[in-house]
Amino acid sequence: MRDLTELTDVEEPAWPLLSEAISTSRVSLEVLPVEPAQARASLLQLQVTARSWLGAFVLNCGGVSLDSGWLRIYGSPGRGSPKGPPGIADVNEFPDRFDPVWRPDGGLVVGHDVLGGTYALNGPEPGAVGRPGGPGEVLYFAPDALRWEALGVGHAAWLSWLLEGGAEEFYDNLRWPGWRAETGPLPGSQGITFDPVLWSADARRDLPAARRRALHMTELLDLHRDVGLELDKIDPGFLGNFHP
């Protein structure tokens, strides 16, 4: 078990490169200010160093609301921001105090999209918890398929891809005219649900015609997990926490 100094005082920290990627991104984004005490506590619990993009992001950034609020990437924000996304500690239900034996169930949730799609980083034994992909690989729980998909990249490549505009093609079939006007004002604790639902044939035939409304992320993720379990008889597992 490494202490905080071992995690922060490293050669070639990733933050200068990552900070440049954020500042030069052509994707619309909002960067949340970091809360240093929370950042250090989260890094200690994660046991990753500041040489990694994950460690550098958690240590130096409060999080990013990307692409007019479509994507929320979790860092270490200050408490009490009603509009911004929560922190990686809250979303993953970190212990209140450092616990050397605690590990996130299934994998570490690193981001959500406004549709309730979940991005998670695989743990050391993904097969043992029913997840596809290899250790350290980023997975996506797709709200239109209600199952996990392995993306074939680690956290650094995933984050770089998003900052370079990868979401535009990835979500091409799930966006509708005027979506930015709907996603931009939403707080980080809310997403959008559809009627007919995204995983239905009716929604796929004419997504822009579907009725939409804002829904708390807790309700949206619970819905996805419950229906995914009902349809596939496989529990997708933990999708993130948005309880107060």
Describe this structure in words.
The chain is α+β, with helices and mostly antiparallel strands and 244 residues long. The chain has one domain: SMI1/KNR4-like (3-Layer(aba) Sandwich), CATH 3.40.1580. The protein contains ten helices and nine strands. The protein has helices spanning 4-8, 15-23, 36-46, 53-60, 88-91, 155-163, 167-170, 179-183, 201-205, 217-232; strands spanning 29-31, 63-66, 71-74, 107-113, 118-122, 138-142, 147-150, 190-195, 211-216. The strands form two sheets. A seven-stranded antiparallel beta sheet has the order 1-2-3-4-5-6-7, with helices on one face. Strands 8-9 form a two-stranded antiparallel ribbon. Strand 6 (138-142) and strand 7 (147-150) form a beta hairpin. Helix 3 packs antiparallel against helix 4. The two termini are 30 Å apart. The model has no long low-confidence stretch (mean pLDDT 94).
Provide tags for this entry.
seven-stranded antiparallel sheet, DUF2625, 10 helices, alpha+beta, 31% helix, 244 residues, DUF2625 family protein, two-stranded antiparallel sheet, SMI1/KNR4-like
Shape: globular
CATH class: Alpha Beta
Q: What is the count of DSSP helices, taking H or I runs of 4+ residues?
A: 10
Can you give the mean pLDDT?
A: 94
In spatial order, strands of the major sheet run 1-2-3-4-5-6-7
CATH homology-level superfamily:
SMI1/KNR4-like
Strand content: 15-25%
> Approximately how much helix is present in the residues?
25-40%
InterPro entries: DUF2625
Protein name: DUF2625 family protein
Pfam families: DUF2625
